Amino acid sequence: MMSQIEPRQLMAANRLIERLMKTVLDMAPGAARLRLTRLRDGAAWPHYDVTHTVVARGRRIGAMRQNQPLSDWRDFLPALLAGQCTLHRVVERGSAAPAFGFPSARPSRVLVCPVTSVDGPLLGAIFIVWDCDARPPAGSALRALKAATRQLVTRIAAVLDLCDALSRPAPACETERNRQVA
The pTM is what? Predict the structure, then answer.
């Protein structure tokens, strides 16, 4: 017997993730959008998918990209693996523009924070994007935003971990025990 997440559970999980993301966006003054990406292991290469996006009023969502090469992240992957949130000017990280959901380096700044599993592995990243001339917070306000983002990303990671666990097949011993009880 295979465990499988039910559609209503998946919808509830997605709503919770989007609510948490909206909370982060609301704490980032002037930010245009926030994107959640998930790492995936493909047969040929590791890649990422944009799975969720929330936007400020009047802003566009941008492309929901799938099967993007992890090489897009080469400029900030070391920081993510070290568990660090980093702020970048997108024009300096042109190779990463697809990860931000744009075909060019149009947005001006992005805060990239890791999404890590409870047991440590990197699951993906959160991208908080400020368009054009909008400025992200600086100094202590930026440190507070990074800390709050890390805290909320921990909750998002817990939801993702739960969804992943519910999607995996049940171990054979659990399946047998369930048959005996029934």
Answer: 0.80
